C-alpha cells in the first residue's frame, strides 16, 4: 500500500474514534438543541426581556450573581460589546460580554437538574457570538474548540449552538437562538466559543447545587 493511503485510513479511523468518544462523553447532562436558528426578534423586545427577570430569579448586583429558586428556568442571555453593556446596565464591562437580567457576566446559581430554557440574543452590531456551557474552567485559549464538542484543554461542552450574526440597528432586529439543557451538581462555565472572546473574558460561572 502507498504511504498516502495508509495515512488516510489512519485519519479516518481516528476521526471515527474521536466522534464516538465525544458522543459518549456527552451523555451525562441533558441537552436538546434549538430549532429556531435564524429567528429575528425586535431589539426593544430583547432589552425588555433582559430587564424583567422572573420572580424566581433573585438578582444580586453587589456580587454580580443571580440565584434561581425554580426547577423551570427561563434564561434570557444578551451578547454585546462592553460599551453597549455599560449603557444598558450601568455596570463596568470590558471586551465582549453576556448581559443576563441586568448584570454583566453574572455567576448563575441554581438547583441541580433544573430545566433551563435559554434564549440567546445577539445585540452586537459587528460581532458574532454564542452561549455554550462547559465544565472546563478558565483561562481559555484563543481557539477554545478542538472540533465537535471537545475543548482544547480536554474539557467537554455540555451544550452547543451556532454563532449568531450581528444585530441590524437599521431594522432594529436581532438574531435569536433557543435551546434547553439540564446540569448535574457541580461547577460549570458559560462561554462564547468565537475565537478570542472567552480568552478575553467573555464567560461566567454556573454553580449547580443539590
Ligand atoms: Cu462572542
What features would you describe in this structure?
This is Blue (type 1) copper domain-containing protein. This protein is an alpha+beta fold and 210 residues long. It has a single domain, classed as Sandwich (Immunoglobulin-like), CATH 2.60.40.420. The protein is built from three helices and 15 strands. The strands form three sheets. Strands 1, 2, 5, 6, 7, 9 and 13 form a seven-stranded mixed β-sheet that branches. Strands 3-4-8-15-14-10 form a six-stranded mixed β-sheet, with no helix packed on it. The chain has a two-stranded antiparallel ribbon with strand order 11-12. A hairpin with a 4-residue loop joins strand 3 and strand 4. The longest helix is centred in the N-terminal third of the chain and has 23 residues. About 8% of the residues have low confidence. Bound molecules: copper (II) ion.
Radius of gyration from the CA trace?
18 Å
SSE order in H/E notation? Answer: HEEHEEEHEEEEEEEEEE
How large is the count of helical segments?
Answer: 3
Q: Give the uncertain stretches in residue-range form.
A: 13-28
Q: Describe the largest sheet.
A: 7 strands, mixed
The shape is globular
Distance between the termini: 57 Å
Portion of residues within helices: 10-25%
In CATH terms, what is the fold-level topology? Answer: Immunoglobulin-like
CATH-level-2 architecture = Sandwich
> Please, how many domains?
1
DSSP, total strands: 15
Which small molecules are bound? copper (II) ion
Global mean pLDDT: 87
Determine the CATH superfamily: Cupredoxins -  blue copper proteins
CATH class: Mainly Beta
**β-sheet strand percentage:** 25-35%
- The helix/strand class is alpha+beta
GO molecular function: copper ion binding; electron transfer activity
Organism: Sulfuracidifex metallicus DSM 6482 = JCM 9184
Keywords: Copper, Metal-binding
Protein name: Blue (type 1) copper domain-containing protein
